[in-house]
Fold this protein.
Amino acid sequence: MKNYDYIIAGGGAAGLSLAWHLSQTAKANARVLIIDKDKKQNNDRTWGFWHRQATPFDKIVSYRFDKLDFFSRFYSQRIPMGSHRYSVIRGIDFYNFMRSSLAAFPNFEFLNATIEKLEDQPDGATAITDKGTFSASWIFTSIFKEKDVVAAAGKALYLRQHFKGLVIETDEPVFDAGSFTMFDFRTPQQGAMRFFYVIPHNARQALVEYTLFSEHLLPKPEYDAAIATYIAEVLKIKSYRIIDDEFGVIPMTTYHFPATQGEHIVQTGSAGGSSKPSSGYTFMRIQVHTKKVAAALAAGKSPVIPAVSPLRYRYYDAVLLNILKNDPEKAELLFSKMYQNNPVGRLFDFLDEKGGLTNDLKVITSLPPWPFLKSTGQLLMG
């Protein structure tokens, strides 16, 4: 059994981010093993995020926007984002960047293997894989088993943000690469919040993504049918080629994800609660959490740092999530008022949980009160 200082179970966004942040600290000389069953050689996903300041990943941003488009029956507008920018990173570029950066540290090793079990030990933890057993002082896992979480969640609110995206290419220039579509509600809602998200790559190419917030996934043909209808009837595109696709599911839940699986196994990523319950936004929240974990290790402190939002934001998330579950037909109006009545910077600060109470109240009072009062009552009644 080979021993390491740290084992990172899962080489996706959370695992690689933690490894990278560790490499930027005094723990850069630690013996680190990163285990994943996938070699991460395909472009399996896209991450989009807003930000004001420079990020460590600016060099691998494929697309960046300073304006967003919003479409609904109640409000449609192209909106400048002020000091914010919206950046998009392809999964394959992120994986390659991380591997290239970590290659400078030969003490960071990668293992392509299936993890069968993680076991807590009195003085550390072990990872049992199909290629052997490995031990470390700490194991950090981002492995997410949704069925286990759903079973543990009990009475907690639990929705899924699920999406199917197609990268399409057209014969004629039809896309405006100067802006992206954050929300387009011009699709039948059918008892769930449904919208399209469009990231132009250039005038003839774009990611067109169909997103739903609901309890259950759709049969696969229904995603494709909705996308085909949107492209034909809303975007008015008659001829195109599909050159790539992606599919994903993000948990949106009030369930309190445990920070650990034992004394020496720490959870990260969605498994550790880094996905924001009411929106599913995860990428930048992962960066905040894994940077804190790396800094704690470098300072000789415990890396058990729960990814927990302040109490008032957990309340806001619960109220909105309850509306999306029980009154989803209200979502289009609520999001329309949110974007119509607030500067984008105020909204992004609110969603980033760092705008302050005054900023929060400006957002909250800009919205129709009844759905939120009703939702609050439902939550209090249990």
In short: The chain has three domains: 2-64+85-151+256-298, 158-252, 311-381. The longest helix spans residues 283-298.
